[in-house]
Amino acid sequence: MTAELKRKRAEGSSSRKLQKLSPPVEDEDTSAQETDGDAQEEQDDGEDVEMDNGEEEELEGEWEGVAHLRSSGEKSSKPTGEEIRVIKDASDLFRSNTFKLQIEALLPNVQPKSKRKPPLERFLLSFHTFLSCLPDVPQEHPLEASRRLLKKGVSVPYPTPPPTEDTQWKVAFSGPTDITLVGSWANETSVKAQGESSYGVDLAVEMPSSLFQEKDYLNGRFFHKKAFYLATIAAAISNPKSGFNVDVSYISTNDDPRLTKLVLKPRADGSPNDFTKLNAQIHIIPTLSSTDSPIPLHRLSPAHANIRITPESYSSLNTNLDNAEDPSKLPSPLYNTALLTSLIPKSYLLSVHAIQQSVPAFSDALALLRVWANQRGYGESGEKGVSVRGFDGKGPWWAALLMYLVQGEEPTSAGKKLGRQGNRKPLGKGLSSYQLFRAVLDFLAKHDFENKPVFVKTEGGHRYSPNEYLSTHDIVFVDSSSAVNLLAGVPLGSMKLLNADARKTLETINSSSTSSGDPFPEVFLRDHRNLHARFDIVIYVDLSTAKPRKPDSHHTLDSGSASNAVLASISSVLTQALGNRVRTIAILHPTPRTRPLSQAHPTTSHIVHIGLFYNPVYAWRQVDHGPNSASDPDPVAVEKFRDLWGDKAELRRFKDGSIVESVVWDVKTVDEKTLIPKRIVAFVLNRHFGIGEEGVRGWQEGFDGILRLPEGVSRYYVGENGLGVAAVGFKAALRAFDGVVKAIKALSSDEGKDALPLSVMNISPTSESLRFTSVFSPVPLPHSIASVLPPNAKYTSPMEFVIEFERSSRWPDNLRAVQKVKMAFLEKIARGLMERVKGLRAAVIVGDVTGVDEGGMEDVVRLEVIIEEGWAFIGRIWHDREAVLLDRIINDSTSRLPHVTRKDKFQSQRQGKDYHTAIQAREAYTRLYTHAPMHHRVIAKLFHQYPAFAGTVRIAKRWFASHWLLGAAGDSVSEEAVELLCAMLFVKQEWEAEADKDKNEDQDKQEERLMVPGSKERGFASLIQFLKDWKWDEQGDGIFIPLYGSSIASVSKQPKAVATLLGTGVWKIRTAMDEEGVVWTMFGPDAVVARRVKALAQATWQCLKGMEMNEVSERGGVLSMFDHPTDNYDVIIKLDRSLLPRYHQNVSLDQKQLSWRQKSDKGELAAALDEKIRPGFDPARLLFMDLKRVYQDTFRIFHDTFGGDQFGIVWDPSLKQPRPFRVLGGFSFCAHETNPTESQGKKSKDKKLVFLNEQGVLGEIERLGRGVVSGITLNVEIDNMCIN
């Protein structure tokens, strides 16, 4: 045995030499940056199973400065000075040692493996020889050359306008003068893109200057010759005689035919040149020498006009020349930039290489930056998904951005005009990769790209005047080559989105610096491309029918394609129309795909997504003001305003006497008001681009529908059929509550025999309907409406409040006597209210859904108030002395001396009934009187601070309830816990101090609100994202929510025995008032429900992603997230829908069920429901609680509190297995019939086995629910048996 153990230890030590440091992997958020996996690679290639000595030495280098494996005989020693220095440097340069290790583990997984590069290098060598030996093609007409190549199956990608028969110039081909590996692959800074994208190997093929003429910069002649050159190479490679086993295709950056390049993707054949395992593809990019080019560079300045089309060309492009300027004088900045990009690949390669030599951490910092950007959609989107518009092919910009921060800024006259006296100071060249990465984020978060151009420092100064860039480009970032604006064509909204992402990342890093959270997965590993959790509203637009109202051919030619021109126009028009309603307008769409050689031009996706960040101050404004005709009579401004809005614009007089051009958006409900931004987008797209309503889709209406009462009920409150109800909604409920509060306080101020013995100090609301977070907007139930509603729509939810009297020594010191005094107080209040307030009904209620407290210690006395308007309230009395009395019983301090401590782990089992009753009463006291009022106040404050908070909570509660997981009873998720989870998405440290500031002072700081959801839809998606990833079982302390400020008064903690005996929940949601995080999760969710929540959240997340890709319909997509599957339940109990007072709140409501039945069909329960209004009366809920209490040891039962018409039951699996009989087993059982042969030789006491009597239990449930239960369905493996 000793030898065997030694052998195993030896094997274990050898295996540790082969292990690699791997980055942490999150559930459901597998990074697209990861490779195919080491395990799969080892299966594909046998040489990967064991590493050679060189690889082991390389692996040890990865662990350098971290730790060294010591042999068993080596004694441990203190860290050396070198080790301490390494640890100190890691902490100073990389934020922490752990962060440094995570970065070192990440980079090898996102970069190509060196051992797989040799096949590519061999291929490139043979390919270089092949290109150098290509035969020349004599000059010929471009159309003749195109027809000749088309016979070989290759189309020439001539950009618009294509050459015609009248074209005088010719095309030709000669062997390339130079072939150079350029781009990130040559500089070893390649990073794997999202999805299944491959590494890009850019190969610059320099075209001979003799093929071009001086005037080729005009009207696309350079691009036409470049296209023919590329097509000739494509035809040669695709020829079977070439000997290359590759797939050849075209791809156009930004879907611009002028930027077309060849893509070579290898086929697996096992040859020495087969580089399929590298997961790379070669991009052939035709270039032109910048030194001996015949094209004069001064003709390519941003303000130069190089598109000079004739009137005939205008007519062929459906443009009215009479309304256009002289095309020969219009600048063509995007056209000129596209031409300049063919001149800079070599200079870019050299500049990056030079800075890599001077800044050691440059390559790693660039890799981190690219990983961060890819995770947020600033790059290729992969096969499925969308990316931010404008960043396709912007790889050089990320490197130039780092170069700008390291080298500094070029002084320009434009900078001085903008008030920038000094240049940006360069960063130190000895910074770590993490410090450089963070410096880039800081720059992106603070720099104003709209108003501050950037010119990277260069040796000889920039070639073109800064004013030319400023007059022709929205964003200016000129690289060190002093020729190209690297951000040309990038929408301003995309840069604002990048700015918001950088600020959010910095906030994540900074907030994690003071807490135990690890920001690395959030910054680098998590996929942040989900649209619904990223934007306040996402609008799906179909451009297949888009036709600009005023076509601009010059803009189309300058943009490179019609689709690019339309998207640029959409971005510009939406920016004008939405104005300050939004902070950011981002357009997202799939990145370009490869196309066959027979297809000349790219096929552009006609589906785009428009994401908006709301400005909560102005987003839902109903009136847009235009120019004032009296104070500012500018006919041009008036004409522009009317051209933008068309018939929607009108001249209006306002209360101050001003007459202003205006646009008014009429709304009838609050839900319609939140749709104003989407209505503006739909109107503008229809007016200016002819896109109908069916082509503009959002998902807001679907979410609004699940929070709204059905039309069959709401029509009695509003509209023409309204029955005279004064007001409905949250504000009406608050006004009614204020009236009740005033009436109760008036009783304490009376004198005489009817006066209250003590004065009322405070009345605190604790109802969700009074803090704007109830799922449905509260409505009263007056007799006028109750008389016409069917029984299954006659429900009113009472609103709870707490009454606090002044302190007095006259309160008894006996808990049972305290409850009697409370009852007397409430009875006196009820009598006084009915005498004072006309139409008010009040009653004292004793007991709750679990029955009357027989011991008399629990607080089960309540005051029910129903006012004439139909609002219902429930009041309780708070007496602070109760906590002390309960603690005495729990701690048993009166039964022993103070210095005597009893140590008995079975003490709780040996206590009497009073002890256990006191435990339950103490928990209820802490929850109802200590935490509930404070929780109510802070949640109400959140509603006023963040407009989207209340809607987020309402949708979240609806989601939990629709999946049968919401409720205060037992193992479900409490409504307060849902509110806390939603608050986590909005609050941060010291948020209350910011909320108390004057709003006028903070309007300039609204950018911070980009970090929090601006709409309920985004808030809900963010909550689902958190729930699907929340590892509650690994977080011992749970999550902390800074809901309360530092000035919160300390509260007395309840005895530990309360949580020990009653606590079954596994979630811990901590706040400053609840340091243990168990007040609102004391009873649930338990482990089973918590895992169920996570599984449902993951399924909901997939549904949200399907909605992004338009895989589901608008209404159906939302409803599918709230459609609860019942296949996993053992038993489904169906309820009679006609007898459920809350059925009208059902998420899958059958409108036909909301109808009156004939009186003869009514049973006793239905007749009782028709007699009078019963606040909070729900037979389904009462039956649910009874079954839960009676069969708590037999099964788990689930139910939707909002009108659910089914119960779901899951049997305890342990009860299905035969077990020995015992008295008081706690469940209904039947005898297990054993085989006589098996029972021979056994003792008689071992033969009596029992198991769960499922049929007996279901029979009892049917009898208990008679009148409410309509059927019971059993889900079994073989068949379904129904008992009716």
Automatic annotation (TrEMBL):
Biased region (Acidic residues) positions are: 25-63
Keyword presence, Translocase: no
Keyword rRNA processing in the entry? The reply is yes
Principal location: nucleus
- Give the UniProt keywords, A-Z: Nucleus, Ribonucleoprotein, Ribosome biogenesis, RNA-binding, rRNA processing
Listed Basic and acidic residues bias regions: 65-82
- Disordered: annotated span: 1-82
Pfam families associated with the record: Nrap, Nrap_D2, Nrap_D3, Nrap_D4, Nrap_D5, Nrap_D6
Where in or outside the cell it occurs: the entry states: Nucleus, Nucleolus
A GO MF label: RNA binding
Any single GO BP term: tRNA export from nucleus
> Gene Ontology cellular component?
CURI complex; small-subunit processome; UTP-C complex
Nrap protein domain location is 201-357, 361-526, 533-689, 728-943, 946-1111, 1127-1272
Family label: Belongs to the NRAP family.
Q: Which PANTHER family match?
A: NUCLEOLAR PROTEIN 6, NUCLEOLAR RNA-ASSOCIATED PROTEIN
Q: What is this protein called?
A: U3 small nucleolar RNA-associated protein 22
Give the species: Lentinula aciculospora
The major lineage groups are: Eukaryota, Fungi, Dikarya, Basidiomycota, Agaricomycotina
